Amino acid sequence: MGEGMTTAAFPALRMRRTRATAWSRALHAETVLTPSNLIWPLFVTEGKGVEEPIGSLPGVSRWSVDLVVERAREARDLGIPCLALFPNTPHELRTNDGKEALNPGNLMCRAIGVIKDAVPDIGILTDVALDPYTAHGHDGLIDDAGYVLNDATTAVLIEQALNQARAGADIIAPSDMMDGRVGAIRNALEADDRHNVQIMAYAAKYASAFYGPFRDAVGSGGMLKGDKKTYQMDPANSEEALREVALDLAEGADSVMVKPGLPYLDIIRRVRDRFAVPVFAYQVSGEYAMIEAAVAAGAGDRDALVLETLMAFRRAGCSGVLTYHAVHAARLLGG
Ligand code: PBG
User: Fold this and answer.
1) Which residues of the chain have pLDDT under 70?
2) Which of 72, 230, 257, 306 is the most exposed place for a label (fewest CB within 10 A)?
């Protein structure tokens, strides 16, 4: 042991010194969390003046377009920079080819248009995938055996992305995990003169058990045949996540997403270290439900759990987080 080691050790060094007071803890915080780090996912439903609570997501509702606009104002006033919209497409409009996704007058496009008119200074992120529109609940087109077809699906996703961008979407977020779709969507946006429409790729999206309540929220859960393991990633893999991210960046993604969130903080850190690009995480529906269940069981304090989990994403290297707790967190953060 050299002398240097002795001088840097106890009692010359007491790690607790800087933790002793609130002002000192604030001064030494390595990471900050603000409302500008939050993206709020919102579920939209048909009708007027409609709020439909979602049983498996206590505290989260589907809103009709007129009320979703009020939520957008609320978010903007709290300093939340961006919303992520998901439609609960009426069941009679769900088909095997998901063609309602391409309708310029669909629920999603109407919601985008109305929010853009009323609250032009908030960003709108839209999910590109067919699951809220297909009768079988998959993100793409399936063959007779139920296998999700890659290239045929991508051809439809391009049109879905254009449909959303023309309605006013600011960030296109392909969540479908088809190969090659980011480049194909980028080319289509450029050809349509939509140079500033961003792409946030769900780059490392895992076939996860944490998506259940979301599928209830968009009404695809009960319809889903089989699972999504032939297109979403295996939770066993981490090297593969880096390859997925590298490909999506090469194809023109402006930012990448890791999903789910907390169980995959290791992936977030690896992506950030390797690529130094904006990384986002989706703290998904099952994670939200787990926190709410813990609170309901008296096993934890909501405010503290929410802020600690969101800070963990920032510490792991995230630029921002999609979270159903966005408004609650923004209020706690003084937004
Ligand atoms: C659909 C999509 C899913 C989520 C976001 N987009 C579900 C899925 O892939 O089955 C999950 C979000 C959540 O659980 O909160 N492509």
Assistant:
1) 1-7
2) 230
